[in-house]
Amino acid sequence: MASRSVRLAVIPGDGIGPEVVAEGLKVLDAVSGDLAFERTSYDLGAARWHRTGEVLPDSVLAELREQDVILLGAVGDPSVPSGTLERGLLLRTRFELDHYVNLRPVKLFPGVATALAGVTADDVDMVVVREGTEGPYTGVGGVLRKGTRHEVATQESVNTAFGVERVIRYAFEVAASRPRRHLTLVHKDNVLTFAGDLYQRVLKRVAEEYPQVTTAYSHVDAATMFFVSDPGRFDVIVTDNLFGDIITDLGAAIAGGIGLAASGNVNPDRTAPSMFEPVHGSAPDIAGQGKADPTATILSVAMLLDHIGEGDAARRVERAVSDDLAERAAFGERSTSQVGDAIAKRVSG
Amino acid sequence: MASRSVRLAVIPGDGIGPEVVAEGLKVLDAVSGDLAFERTSYDLGAARWHRTGEVLPDSVLAELREQDVILLGAVGDPSVPSGTLERGLLLRTRFELDHYVNLRPVKLFPGVATALAGVTADDVDMVVVREGTEGPYTGVGGVLRKGTRHEVATQESVNTAFGVERVIRYAFEVAASRPRRHLTLVHKDNVLTFAGDLYQRVLKRVAEEYPQVTTAYSHVDAATMFFVSDPGRFDVIVTDNLFGDIITDLGAAIAGGIGLAASGNVNPDRTAPSMFEPVHGSAPDIAGQGKADPTATILSVAMLLDHIGEGDAARRVERAVSDDLAERAAFGERSTSQVGDAIAKRVSG
Ligand SMILES: CC(C)[C@H](C(=O)O)[C@@H](O)C(=O)O
Ligand SMILES: CC(C)[C@H](C(=O)O)[C@@H](O)C(=O)O
């Protein structure tokens, strides 16, 4: 690996966030070789909000912009009003840094127990390409006559040809790079006719440029059923922000649990740094007990490495995780740091 | 059962719709006793649309309004543009007849195979109370600059205190009538903050009138995970139109498949007839082959009987279905009408 320096912002966050991030960084160190990470840690999340009332100061966002890449643990705590950190920190980062692709592999590693009867690792190997910057997540909407019998609360899903095309294009690229070359659009075009029709038309148009990729469509309700009854039908999925949120949590459930689910909030145009994070939350109930599984964060580190062009290092981390998972049944209980140690040892060994 | 006459509208629809409706009516006949159904059949769906271009003529809607109750099979066909029949017929009926409760039991019957490893009938027994007349299903929204690079497509979720309160109230009533008396709100209040906050505030307020009911909240993404990993945590769920659509298909997947999932589009105020239908669609791929499972329709007939105050008859149908399901493994392949015959025989026997 050539000597190279990468500016890495780290947002450990709340609850188990700092614990799992520590293990992610441990593995990153073990795999880095000549690759030098200049790390800056940012104190953001529930603790900072309680202390200062700040969620994401503009100055911090400006600093984040100057980084090459971001690793996030998890933010949130029941003591903070719902939405404060989600909209003000997580979604604001995704929107401001133009993370229009939320990349979420749903892959069952060999040897990992799944909740589904009769399903094996071969049956669950997909990548969900979730739109990250529009749809129902815009925050557009409002409330009228709040607290009265005549209250009206609205939420608007805003979808643009620009936004839909770029995420669909990305999804075709991902599909074209995989052996099965199959792309499924997940939406609800029979009810959300305006947005669904836009997705359908753009998919059809872009598909002409990818004759090697086969395409399919599934309503989101049917898709959740297929995740359980026939996950093998999916290879790459492209979907909107909200449907992607829902089906990737379900995806985690069928692929060994939320402790293994990695994700990347990706700006493919590289006009701002991308952000990698486990799909799970801050899990305050188990925080500080060394019980959290750092695997999702470590797999997110592998995605981070891929994003910065260090594919070999990414593969080594993935392989170490895969080997560790294959033998887990034999290990018995291990603490967060024991899992991190074991995987770090494998990547350096 | 006292002699009584009920006006029943039947909409067989497309694909397997007529086949499963025939079995539903067979069982209804078998259980009716002194109860006389005056049936009127309505020809609606893809076939009519192809023949006449009509989806739901106002005159037909006016006739439906005069009925006591409606039984629907399934409508739809790939040859009809997506949304035409869904918005124009199914959703129009739900909205115009004020079916503000979409009632969907998610119940694993003993002896039925589930897709989940290690889950038994005791673990899956819930009722989803899905809002039916507002939220993201309103059809509010539109498209600007269609077909250009600058296209914008919007969908608006409209939620009112009036609409949210009445469905939450209904859900509390259902919860209060069940042994566990537990109600979970499923939403996404950390992102859809306006609508989610309205649901949360109304839930809290109405909860004061039901001190015997415990309440909980789950984000919709987490809920899909729990459906797979821990369905036993749910008793009654109240949720919006779109989330309800998604989680009830998932619910069908964990409770023995879509062939068993019944539903009622209920107008609890009885200002218009309610409509009962299987959750599944018209399945044109297996239509006309006697392969469709009529069980979902037969269970929908049981819900219909409950709605018109014929609880004893409803229980008899449910018991017949439950007994049939318990012995299914021994039967081998049976046709649609053989299943209907067997269940009809049990209710009359
Ligand atoms: C915390 C929340 C805002 C977030 C989302 O809805 O995107 C989370 O559920 C996720 O999937 O990353
Ligand atoms: C066909 C469609 C409009 C409908 C819905 O989305 O409600 C269906 O999926 C259902 O669940 O009854």
SSE blueprint and pairings:
The structure is a homodimer of 349-residue chains.
Chain A (H helix, E strand, L loop, with lengths): L3 E10 L3 H16 L2 E7 L4 H7 L5 H8 L3 E6 L9 H13 L4 E7 L17 E7 L9 E4 L7 E9 H16 L5 E6 L5 H15 L6 E6 H10 L6 E4 L1 H14 L7 E5 L7 E5 L16 H13 L3 H21 L4 H13 L1
Parallel strand pairs in A: 1-2, 1-3, 3-12, 5-10, 8-9, 8-10
Antiparallel strand pairs in A: 4-5, 4-11, 6-7, 11-12
Helix pairs in contact in A: 1-9, 1-11, 5-6, 7-8, 9-10, 10-11
One 3-isopropylmalic acid sits at the interface of chains B and A.
Provide an overview of this structure.
- Two copies of one chain form a homodimer.
- The first copy, chain A, has 349 residues and is α/β, with parallel strands linked by helices.
- Chain A folds into two domains: 1-109 and 257-348, Isopropylmalate Dehydrogenase; 114-255, Isopropylmalate Dehydrogenase (3-Layer(aba) Sandwich).
- Chain A has helices at residues 17-32, 46-52, 58-65, 84-96, 161-176, 193-207, 220-229, 241-254, 295-307, 311-331, 336-348, and strands spanning 4-13, 35-41, 69-74, 101-107, 125-131, 141-144, 152-160, 182-187, 214-219, 236-239, 262-266, 274-278.
- In chain A, strands 2-1-3-12-11-4-5-10-8-9 form a ten-stranded mixed beta sheet, with helices on both faces. In chain A, strands 6-7 form a two-stranded antiparallel sheet.
- The mean pLDDT of chain A is 97.
- At the A-B interface, helix 4, strand 6, strand 7, helix 5 and helix 6 of A face helix 4, strand 6, strand 7, helix 6 and helix 7 of B.
- The structure holds 3-isopropylmalic acid (IPM) (2 copies).
- One 3-isopropylmalic acid (IPM) sits between chains B (86, 90-91, 245, 279) and A (190-191, 221).
